[in-house]
Design goal:
Elements (H helix, E strand, L loop, with lengths): L2 H12 L9 H17 L4 H16 L9 H17 L14 E7 L5 H14 L4 E6 L6 H15 L5 E4 L12 H17 L4 E6 L7 H14 L3 E7 L4 H14 L3 E5 L8 H10 L3 E5 L7 E3 L2 H8 L5 H11 L2 H12 L5 H13 L3 H5 L17 H11 L3 H5 L6 H11 L3 H23 L1 H16 L27
Parallel strand pairs: 1-4, 1-5, 2-3, 2-4, 5-6, 6-7
Antiparallel strand pairs: 7-8
Helix pairs in contact: 1-2, 2-3, 3-4, 4-11, 5-6, 7-8, 9-10, 14-16, 16-18, 18-19, 19-20
């Protein structure tokens, strides 16, 4: 996300590198580039002008610290102003006691509202909330059934959490429906949520291809009838300024409490994320970062500003790991790694845990200093499927002791997994190298650790994934097969 914007901002700030101090001339040059980058990211022109003015004013009024270089100070200033632009603090859903907390979702057709409804239900379910979802979009054909399927899948993804669906398809009409139908469905869903003691009621409403009076009257009627505690507007981040403008129009009629930006993983511009708060006054509460059911994150201005500036987001990475890694299993694996005793089954288990956290390219983008380079990294996610296929085609004994795998075994494993023998050979060889490096790091002191790191940089990498990006594979990483003795 924000690939182009991150690259342009990083380039502008790097231009200050080597300067002895922050001066009016070199800061103005950098700000000219930043202004162009923000406009190209489809940020509102008035907001861009105000932002750049604030950065320039703070930069020129800042006393240069001897411990920091000019570009480092400017990164700090731009980061602070980005945070102020998007909202100084993260805004969360406020839950009421006793429940249910009523959350009403609204937005234009095509913004991803139905899918977001399922993601939000799964997000709440994973945090211990019981959720009832009401299908109040009676305009689109089969909208009720579509949401039913989405909620069923979301409930499965949430791991057994209590997530239920309330829909009344008989209330739909062939040529649209009256306001009263959607209001009635919402009211009956609310009664059910109270009677069955759900923690949260999500009300999914109808959308349109554009904002019209009929849509707004229906939303206002539902708002009046069930009195939601949170009105969240779902907007497509890829529409840039249009997202902010539609959010403003909804806010004027409904007084929205927050915004959910969808498809942020597909948006290389980022203008909507930077504009919505200033245009509407309503905070961004969630962002859609992938098509997966866990692809909904709470929006944090501090973290997002760090991502935009290529500073990474280690906190989010740790949170993802905590949600998918068992602490006892991790401790046991760490002990085996320290002894250099991990086997193919251990490696496969960690690979599956890593995949649950999200696409590898997205995870790399959360690492400091890596975000701006991720766009140049080509990661074939299908390779993970091939690695799993190869490992599962091995016998239990082969997975425990990969050194047993000779040429004939390689051919059998390749045939069983539908891969090339060279891939199997590369996987086993790199796995052996990884085991060797772990033993060196655990028992060789500092010298052993340094040697292991050099070998990894030279050509170890992830077993089965080839050489690290940007480096050629060493001779030792090339697949080798054990030769059977001649008879």
């Amino acid at each position: 996300m924000f690939d182009s914007l991150t690259e342009r901002l990083s380039g502008a700030l790097r231009s200050l590198s080597g300067r002895g101090r922050i001066s009016q001339s070199n800061v103005r040059d950098a700000m000219s580039t930043i202004e162009t980058a923000l406009l190209e990211a489809d940020v509102n022109a008035a907001i861009v002008k105000e932002f750049c003015s604030d950065v320039l004013e703070e930069a020129l009024g800042t006393e240069v610290l001897q411990s920091l270089r000019p570009e480092e100070q400017m990164i700090g200033i731009v980061h602070r102003q980005l945070v102020a632009l998007m909202g100084s603090t993260a805004s969360r859903i406020s839950f009421v006691e006793p429940g249910p907390t009523i959350v009403m979702l609204c937005g234009l057709q095509g913004a991803g509202k139905t899918t977001t409804c399922g993601k939000l239900a799964a997000w709440l379910g994973k945090r211990g909330k019981s959720v009832l979802v009401a299908a109040c979009d009676l305009q689109r054909p089969a909208a009720v059934e579509q949401l039913r399927v989405v909620i069923h899948d979301a409930a499965a993804a949430a791991g057994g959490s209590r997530i239920a669906f309330h829909g009344e398809p008989d209330q739909c009409r062939a040529h649209g429906s009256g306001v009263g139908n959607a209001v009635g469905v919402a009211q009956r869903a609310l009664r059910k949520a109270r009677d069955e003691r759900f923690d949260v009621l999500i009300v999914d409403t109808a959308g349109r291809l554009h904002i019209d009076d009929a849509l707004m009257r229906e939303l206002e009627s539902i708002n009046t009838s069930v009195e939601p505690h949170e009105i969240l507007l779902v907007v497509d981040a890829m529409t840039g300024q249009d997202a902010a403008n539609s959010a403003k129009a909804f806010h004027q009629r409904l007084t929205i409490d927050g915004v959910i930006l969808t498809k942020l993983d597909s948006d290389t511009r980022g203008g909507a994320a930077l504009s919505v708060r200033r245009v509407t006054g309503a905070p961004v509460k969630f962002v859609g970062i992938s098509e997966r059911w866990d692809g909904l994150d709470e929006f944090d201005p501090q973290r997002m500003a760090g991502r935009i500036l290529g500073m990474g987001d280690v906190v989010s990475l740790v949170e993802k790991a905590q949600g998918h890694v068992d602490e006892k299993e991790a401790a046991a694996l760490a002990a085996k790694m320290a002894r250099g005793q991990i086997d193919m089954d251990d490696f496969l288990g960690q690979l599956k845990s890593l995949r649950k956290m999200g696409p590898l390219k997205q995870l790399l983008g959360l690492l400091p200093g890596v975000g701006s380079m991720v766009k140049d990294i080509d990661i074939d996610e299908n390779q993970f499927d091939r690695i799993e296929g190869m490992i599962r085609s091995m016998t239990k004994r082969e997975r425990a002791t990969p050194t047993l795998i000779d040429r004939s075994r390689v051919k059998r494993i390749a045939a069983g997994s539908g891969t090339d023998p060279m891939e199997v050979g590369r996987l086993t060889k790199q796995f052996e190298m990884m085991q060797k490096m772990m033993k060196q790091m655990s028992s060789g002191g500092m010298a052993g650790k340094m040697n292991a790191m050099r070998e990894m940089a030279a050509g170890g990498g992830v077993p089965g994934m080839g050489a690290p990006v940007g480096g050629a594979r060493s001779e030792s990483a090339k697949p080798r097969f054990k030769q059977r003795p001649r008879r």
